[in-house]
Specification:
single chain, mainly alpha, 2 strands, elongated
């Protein structure tokens, strides 16, 4: 399924950009481009930093489960997935077209269920670790104060 998605996504993006995309020179100063590029690189940084922390979590030869600590791992269980969502939202905004929006929607439809599933697995395997349960999957909405927070 992933192969089919990547082929279809690659085709739709490349076809759009090679046949229809036409950005004027002033596009680079448009608020959508500037906002999108900031979001893209912010998400890229979060994704890469979280992945790097996860990769270096265990020493060579270690097999035991480790819980990431520090940075935004203290508030979010999967900041690498969160960063990827921000990254592709930024890409959709900076390109401002249907194929990139579709790619972002499919990314959301993939990553959020994956994060929820991983959190459930962590809960069932490590239910006694209060740390896992206190973290938000991505963004927590506090209905009392009507504010979203990490």
């Amino acid at each position: 399924m992933a192969v089919i998605f990547n082929i279809m996504n690659g085709f739709s993006l490349s076809y759009y950009f090679s046949h229809y995309a036409n950005y004027a020179n002033d596009w680079f100063t448009d608020i959508r481009f500037i906002t999108g590029i900031i979001l893209f690189f912010t998400g890229l940084y979060i994704n890469w930093k979280a992945d790097d922390m996860l990769i270096h979590l265990r020493k060579p030869g270690e097999r035991d489960y480790k819980i990431p600590r520090g940075w935004i791992f203290e508030k979010i269980s999967y900041p690498n997935l969160f960063g990827e969502l921000i990254e592709w939202l930024g890409f959709a905004i900076l390109c401002w077209n249907l194929p990139t929006l579709t790619f972002f929607i499919w990314t959301v439809a993939n990553l959020i269920p994956r994060a929820i599933s991983n959190k459930k697995k962590s809960y069932s395997a490590f239910y006694y670790l209060k740390l896992i349960l206190q973290k938000k999957i991505f963004l927590h909405y506090d209905s009392q104060s009507n504010r979203g927070r990490f």
